[in-house]
Design brief:
Helix content: 40-55%
Keywords: Oxidoreductase
GO molecular function: oxidoreductase activity
Structural class: alpha/beta
Protein name: (diamondback moth) hypothetical protein
Largest sheet: 7 strands, parallel
Distance between the termini: 33 Å
Number of domains: 1
Bound molecules: NADP nicotinamide-adenine-dinucleotide phosphate
InterPro entries: NAD(P)-bd_dom_sf (IPR036291), Sc_DH/Rdtase_CS (IPR020904), SDR_fam (IPR002347)
CATH topology: Rossmann fold
Radius of gyration: 17 Å
Number of strands: 7
CATH class: Alpha Beta
Length: 251
Amino acid sequence: MSFKDKVVIVTGASSGIGAAIAMSFAEQGASVVLVGRNQAKLDGVTSKCIKNGTKPLAINADVTAEADVKRIIDKTVQTFGQIDILVNNAGIASTVSFGRDETMKEFDRIMAVNFRAVVHLTQLATPHLIKTKGNIVNISSVASLRNFDKAWIYCSTKAALDHFSRSMASELAKKGVRVNTVNPGPVKTDIIVNMGLTDTDFYWDLMKGATALNRISDPSEIADVVLFLASEKAKGVTGSTWVADNGTLVK
Ligand SMILES: NC(=O)c1ccc[n+]([C@@H]2O[C@H](COP(=O)([O-])OP(=O)(O)OC[C@H]3O[C@@H](n4cnc5c(N)ncnc54)[C@H](OP(=O)(O)O)[C@@H]3O)[C@@H](O)[C@H]2O)c1
């Protein structure tokens, strides 16, 4: 599956699933744009991409800042001349319950990263994707398809993301642009640490136990699905919600 001559933007490429996606595209010859805020982690992923494939462009940017989103698109086009694939992967989670003092603040914070930023990036990238007949892969979650205790904000943002993706798939199909989501179950990344939780083993065990296959995925498994959906092999796939959840939904 070669992505030579393809330009791919991956948000949240400094960690976990996004880092694996970026490295897989680099291995397949793509010009990859890494987006994240943690410079040390971005530098680490840059080195791995260079070692295994192509030299990426790393952009230190916050996807919730309007000027940063514009800079991501402008810098990509200035550097590589085009955009073929947009992977909206940056995401955060939280366990704030309904009805607490901090609920609405937390709702805005998660919504800004998981949904508003995707809409904004899609809006600015679309003219370039139409030119290349490119495609978008949005990293959603199995949490868009069922509720999880205390994760209603996260679940709601991912459900919104799924529906937006279907709407865009319909709207952009006539322009030759495909849009799909990948909806993982548990994947071993820094997501729990980044939620500010300390008892990480407890949460991974909980999530593992909620899967039919009794396992947690490696980020590379999600990258494999993303590369398939972004490739010519998936030329007939648009508007799909591609679940890779170790059987969470069937348990
Ligand atoms: N791990 C799982 O079990 C799981 C399951 C289903 C879905 N997902 C989804 O997979 C995606 C990746 O999550 P992960 O598990 O790989 O988590 P992670 O290791 O915590 O990585 C999250 C990434 O998002 C980036 N990010 C967060 N806020 C950002 C912002 N404002 N601007 C720019 N980048 C931002 C982070 O970059 P910086 O820290 O450098 O800013 C980091 O690269 C998320 O959308 C998540 O909802 C994960």
